[in-house]
């Protein structure tokens, strides 16, 4: 994903006249840098639009999730294990749920399944295999759910012109270019991520784009 985003944002910078530079760090540190104007955008986040105190782009990708539920009597407190990057949460996630572990490492997260009622993973194939091979298949079942995470870019709420250009790039970049970048970095291997760049209706007025920037979908 990182290679795809870096390649795409370099392309976007050339098309829209931005000098794109990359920094990496802990998610909360990046949020602090965004607030203090040390950086202008966070390239991947999954904050729900209804909870946002920042500017959020239209989704540039969707992540499919596997959700497993404990069979039989649930443990008290509804504990959950999340096999996701720390900056990602499932859509409509209940903030009152007890998150026992939240880490992008399927093997380590699965080791905590005895202590949780739910297990959520974006590494769908590996999660199914580890639940089965590590003896949890009689204790957990995969829920027939079409749950996904919308991946967005986060900006400061005051940077509307930047957000409009980001949204315009996600919408207007030809799908063939997005697909070519994706194929180059994934070598056509199966992925839980579906790129959305170039897959939107393109003919929006500036007023419509401004409205979407104010109230992200």
N-end to C-end Cα span: 22 Å
Largest beta-sheet characterization: 5 strands, antiparallel
Which regions are unreliable across 5 or more consecutive residues at pLDDT < 50?
A: none
Shape field: globular
Radius of gyration: 19 Å
| Helix amount | 25-40%
Beta fraction:
15-25%
The average pLDDT score comes to 88
Q: Structural class, judged by helices and strands?
A: alpha+beta
Number of helices: 7
Secondary-structure element sequence? HHEEEEEEHEHEEHHEH
Number of strands: 10
Any overview of this molecule?
By secondary structure, the protein is α+β, with helices and mostly antiparallel strands. The chain is built from 7 helices and 10 strands. Strands 1, 2, 3, 9 and 10 form a 5-stranded antiparallel sheet that branches. The longest helix has 15 residues, at 2-16.
Quick description:
By secondary structure, this protein is of the alpha+beta class. It is built from seven helices and ten strands. The mean pLDDT is 88.
Please give the structural blueprint.
Elements: H1 2-16, H2 27-35, E1 41-45, E2 55-56, E3 61-64, E4 66-70, E5 80-83, E6 99-102, H3 106-110, E7 118-121, H4 124-133, E8 140-142, E9 148-155, H5 160-172, H6 175-186, E10 193-195, H7 206-214
Helix pairs in contact: 1-6, 5-7
């Amino acid at each position: 994903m990182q290679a795809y985003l870096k390649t795409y944002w370099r392309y976007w910078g050339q098309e829209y006249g931005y000098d794109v530079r990359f920094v990496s760090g802990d998610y909360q540190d990046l949020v602090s840098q965004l607030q203090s104007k040390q950086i202008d955008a966070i390239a991947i986040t999954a904050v729900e639009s209804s909870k946002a105190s920042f500017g959020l782009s239209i989704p540039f990708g969707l992540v499919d999730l596997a959700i497993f539920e404990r069979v039989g009597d649930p443990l008290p407190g509804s504990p959950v294990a999340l096999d996701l990057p720390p900056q990602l949460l499932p859509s409509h996630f209940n903030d009152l749920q007890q998150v026992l572990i939240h880490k992008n490492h399927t093997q380590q997260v699965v080791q905590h399944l005895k202590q949780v009622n739910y297990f959520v993973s974006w590494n769908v194939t590996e999660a199914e295999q580890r639940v089965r091979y590590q003896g949890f298949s009689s204790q957990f079942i995969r829920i027939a759910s079409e749950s996904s995470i919308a991946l967005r870019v986060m900006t400061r709420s005051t940077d509307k012109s930047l957000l409009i250009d980001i949204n315009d790039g996600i919408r207007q970049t030809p799908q063939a270019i997005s697909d070519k970048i994706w194929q180059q970095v994934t070598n056509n291997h199966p992925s839980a991520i579906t790129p959305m760049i170039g897959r939107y209706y393109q003919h929006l007025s500036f007023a419509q784009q401004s409205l979407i920037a104010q109230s992200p979908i």
